[in-house]
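User: Hi! I'm working on a homework problem where we have to compare a predicted structure to a textbook description. Could you give me the structure for the chain below?
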Amino acid sequence: MREGVMTLRRDARGGAAVEFALVAVPFLALLFAIIETATVFYAGAMMEAAVQDAARQVRVGQARTEAEFREALCARIGPAADCAQIEIEVRPINGFTDAEGWTPGPAGFDPGQAGQIILASARHERRLIAPDLGLGLANRPGNRRLIAAASAFRNEPF
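Assistant: Happy to help. Predicted structure tokens:
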């Protein structure tokens, strides 16, 4: 009997599979969290760049309608967001200090007149694939993340 137990202890077959099972789950969870965090930051960076480019079109008087603004926005944003789901807010504000602490308001489009200060913003909610792993990525109910960007500028004399 004692000899059988010693043989079982020395038998290492399957040891690698057990070790892999213990390490694989946390490793894959960490890898997936890194990938999802990267895609959220990529979407945010693309939204920022797209809003800056589209706002430039409003500033110089080339985008005078919501369709023109959306076209300029969607041309730059690429696969980071579904363009049909993006809410747009372009409106005159009283001064640049009104843009401080900006929070998304109602969607709408008013490009203002020459010389007016304008706040242009775009936002969409991105559904996260991984549950919240303590990373704080979900800032909306239903495991969703709000991706938003804004630009305040003074219209050129067009």
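For your comparison, note the following. Residues 28 and 108 are 42 Å apart (CA to CA). The radius of gyration is 25 Å. Good luck with the assignment!
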